[in-house]
Amino acid sequence: xxxxxxxAHPNIALIKYWGKRDExxxxxxxxxxxxxxxxxxxxxxxxxxxDSDVFQLxxxxxxGRAADKVFKFLDLVRQLAGSDDRATVLSxxxxxxxxxxxxxxxxxxxxATAAAAAYGLNLSTAELSRLARRGSGSxxxxxIDRFAVWHAGDDDQTSFAEEIDAPDMRMIxxxxxxxxxxxxxxxxxxxxxxxxxxxxAWAPATEKALAEMLAACAAQDFTKIGELTEAHAMQMHALAxxxxxxxxxxxxxxxxxxxxxxxxxxxxIETYGTADAGPNVVAIARPKDAAAVAAALSEFGxxxxxxxxxxxxxxxxx
Length: 318
Ligand code: PMV
Fold this sequence. Notes:
Blueprint: E1 3-8, E2 11-15, E3 20-22, E4 27-28, E5 32-36, E6 42-48, E7 54-57, E8 60-61, H1 64-81, E9 87-93, H2 103-118, H3 125-135, E10 147-150, E11 161-163, E12 170-175, H4 185-195, H5 199-218, H6 222-241, H7 252-266, E13 271-274, E14 281-285, H8 290-297, E15 302-306, E16 313-314
Parallel strand pairs: 7-9
Antiparallel strand pairs: 1-6, 1-16, 2-5, 3-4, 5-10, 6-9, 7-8, 10-11, 12-14, 12-15, 13-14
Helix pairs in contact: 1-2, 2-3, 5-6
The structure holds (3R)-3-hydroxy-3-methyl-5-(phosphonooxy)pentanoic acid.
(3R)-3-hydroxy-3-methyl-5-(phosphonooxy)pentanoic acid binds next to helix 2 and helix 4.
């Protein structure tokens, strides 16, 4: 029992996760595929000891829903470790929290890695991925270097992420609005599952897109990867829009950015767009085109370029 610090980066999905088969075990309706970023990070220190659990985010004491999620997660770690000890969690996040930039992914990947070590557990990457999944589904993928496939799996044991090979690429993140989103992914997924007439089509369509994406990655086919990425992002947003009442995450500026991405393609700069549960747009491009894409999107919001990055790691042990 002791103290451990871990670093994790967000990941952005090329094949999206939207909807759970099992909310307790956090088993997704379908598999997904992502790139872990080398930019923005969450750094989390877990120290075992004290009278009660404490969670501080960016220097401020956290209470309510965010803190409850962290304490519930610590309960899972304690169960695995056979411990009743409380812990203090100090976390610092470079990215705006809950703005659709996957802060929950880096947050729970860092927490799983640091808490497991602080409670004396020696877990494999797949086991840490399974553990992180229980905090936030997409966190399962932030354990993985570069590119990850998260298998939907059949149960807790088989639903984890692992590394796949894919061509080198860059993500150009365009921050259209850094404020917190109106409806969290968790609530949005549940609402979509409960009300959308199209939800039954989602899981089979996603598994099909995932199989095609895995083949495109193996073939190093950037064009196919891009086409599948943009189509699947639009399908996820169309699904959210089909909920009753609708969930509209994209803003008019997001669509303007997607139009610009299409214009760039027409002029020979091959780039494709995606967006998570918020208005920010993420373009993918070959490394040589990334600066031109970032410049073209900068009128819609602050842009930064991310390369494939490392999965979560213990500080000093990377
Ligand atoms: O794991 P969550 O609850 O942060 O949900 C992530 C959902 C999306 O970001 C919209 C899609 C994805 O696969 O990352």
